[in-house]
Amino acid sequence: MASRTLISRATRIKTKLETALQTAVLEVEDVSYQHAGHAAMRGIEGGANETHFNVSIVSTKFEGHNLVKRHRMVYDLLSDELQSGLHALSITAKTPKEAGLAVGNDKE
């Protein structure tokens, strides 16, 4: 039998977002432990493992898009995760300028 390497949901989220959004900053925080006792999580095998995440993203891909569109971009990228156990996602989505990062020739 071939061995199979399991990749954590946090790693999959990070890889998908980094690749598609070419992130300048990406933080993925698993906060599932904070929800382990909630009613909706009690029926999940193993408790609330990898079900709740906070993500903070800075990307030039967000330029020209309002907050709703930015969130939709993230949800679309993670649709398979949302259909396979990801229960909640808190998103902070900023452009480099909004995050106070210098980009390209904007450095002084």
From TrEMBL:
The keyword Chloroplast applies. InterPro entries: BolA, BolA-like_sf. The keyword Chloroplast applies. One of its GO terms (biological process) is iron-sulfur cluster assembly. Its main location: plastid. Keywords: Chloroplast, Plastid, Transit peptide. GO terms for cellular component: chloroplast. This is SufE-like protein 1, chloroplastic/mitochondrial.
